[in-house]
Amino acid sequence: MVPYRIGIDVGLNSVGFAAIEVSPSGSPERILNMQSVIHDSGVEEAKTAKTRKAVSGGARRMRRLIRRRRARLTDLDKSLIELGWPIVDLETISDPYYPWRVREELVTAPIRESEELYRKLSIALRHIARHRGWRNPYTKVQTLLAATGPSKEFLTFIESVKKRSGMERVDPESTVAEIVCAALETDLTQRIRGTRKDVV
User: CA 17 to CA 100: how far, in whole Å?
Assistant: First the structure.
């Protein structure tokens, strides 16, 4: 039996192994075997230096976000059905901006017919749920009752509308739907957000 010791050197991008024969006193005498293994240091993207753990964590959180969003939309539809409000298939409506026009109508003109009101409220709520999202769960409901000014995102949206539609003035007291519809009346070929021209 040859007495030996094993050494391991762990580096950032490699691991070294060595088997060293030693004397009875423990002094090294000769190298029996050695090897160096190069690895990627757990980095998934070399340019951004994101680790595989970080990338997989981001993907996992995104899957969870999509799953929760689908569940919330399903729960919303169930609640609307329980209220007796119809679920309107927007694929049957030729106007792609119809939900925006409905939202504008709901805040600018009274709707006397209850059946039409429930139909348009259903369209508006489902559209808002898909375009605005949900309240931050870490924010208390009571904070929604406090008077606040326009958010940074809303002001950025107004500037985008001015730039893309050529509108000179946008009332910050208006709702998003009113601003979108005013921009659509100015130019239907311009997209409010993004670069494509066929969808708002």
Answer: 66
